[in-house]
Amino acid sequence: xxPIAAALLLAVxxxxxxxxxxxASAPPSQASSAPDSTPLAPGGDRAVINNYLGLDDSxxxxxxxxxxxxxxxxxxxxxAKRDDAYGAFQxxxxxxALSLALPRAEKADPAAQTLIAEIYAxxxxxxxxxxxxxxxxxxAAKNGDRMAAFELGLLYLNGDGVPKNRQRAAELFxxxxxxxxxxxxxxxxxxxxxxxxxxPSLTDAATLMKSAADAGLAEAQYDYGSMLMDGxxxxxxxxxxARQIGLAAQQGLVEAEIEYATLxxxxxxxxxxxxxxxxxxxxxxxxxxxxxQDRYAKLLAVGEGVPLDLKQxxxxxxLARRQGLTDPVLDKLLxxxxxxxxxxAEELARFxxxxxxxxxxxxxxxxxxxxxxxxVSSTKLAGS
Length: 384
Known about the structure:
384 residues, mainly alpha, Serine Threonine Protein Phosphatase 5, Tetratricopeptide repeat, 3 domains, 18 helices
């Protein structure tokens, strides 16, 4: 399944937006099992179109992009219970939060130190100053704050405000992971897979990934599910692997949505269900993922699990092409589309996700423009 070693490291509070414009890496080319000499006709020979989705390379789907901490994502991990500084921070009164946290931070309160670090790291109410943030993170980490250790690890990983040092980052991730911090467990797992700055161990990676997945981290659910599907560092368990990937899909992780759709289409780890597979491809396609757009277009082009609709298929093909994904198999499936439908599909893609304006819309807009021009003309005459 997913090449976990290539995954990007997550910042705390990372979320995968449902409207991802493109995957983190170039989408995979779609392998074709169809003969080159004959165009594939809609609803054609199943033996010919059996692998038209190119599912043999579905395991190259990218993992989520790194996302930074949103200001509102600071939670009870900073303060075990609500207090004035935390409340001010949550309401966006960052300078008030800073003034309330500072006396406590000077008394070695790790939660207050982390809060101050976050304010400076994100430039919330103050000028962004990563070097100052790193100092506060360091103090908080020394005082036992697991989030601070993780955030400081990210700074060392990227050389942001501190000298770049991936081994130090791994040490800090382990420090936070040992305290049960899911994003740190996930990142440390990835570093064990890579094996450069942490000991190479798929077994350790799987253990950490499972812990982060059990905590509900969507990216970990996706990658742990993939490890279970492949038997990487853990005994193969396609059913549990599919379940984990499904959990990540339910959280809106687009790559997981595509992978879960593929598992449903193939009946791998789950009962084969074309209707559900189409629904997940549709959802990921509408989130802007070109791989999903391409696969959904193919299903529409052959009418499998969804009513045959060449115009909609051509629209999704156009959208996938915008992001650099071309597919000769899909081109063959759409070779018989009437030119009028193809033009209409291109027009739909041009305005997507909105719909093209209707004749009534155009007439109404023209009327508004005429009314505005007449109003300006009347004003000028009145003032002359």
